[in-house]
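ESCALATION

Customer reports they have been waiting on this structure for their group meeting. Please prioritize. Original submission:
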Amino acid sequence: MPVRSHRDLRVWQISIDFAEDLYRITLLFPREEVYSLTAQVRRAVSSIPLNIAEGHARQSTREFLHSLSIAAGSLAEVETQLILAARLNYLEQARLDELLLKSDEIGKMIRGLRKSLQARINPGASEPLVPSP
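Update from on-call: job pushed to the front of the queue and completed.
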């Protein structure tokens, strides 16, 4: 199936589902976290599909690679915030483990897409243009 829109990208689809899950989970965080950890998690997790979409809409592969790099950074932020939430007992360990598995899946997909795009720019190169996180 041809990719006509960012909505056709499986990594975008999974990351938007992940963002929705985390928005729902953060509703259960303590009220005093609404302007701190809750807001940070929501901002970071929404950045993942937003950057995938923005990068796909850009006119160059290099810009798309840059946006994917930002999405990968946001994913690492989210993982760290979730670990902190679990340490603060806002999240059960089993739920954290489940979310980290989803995060790992998204990370693998982002890295795979980056590798594919890098090959388009520099076929046969031994070193990637953009280092993987």
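Sent to customer with the following note: Helices lie at 10-26, 37-57, 61-87, 93-121.
Escalation resolved.
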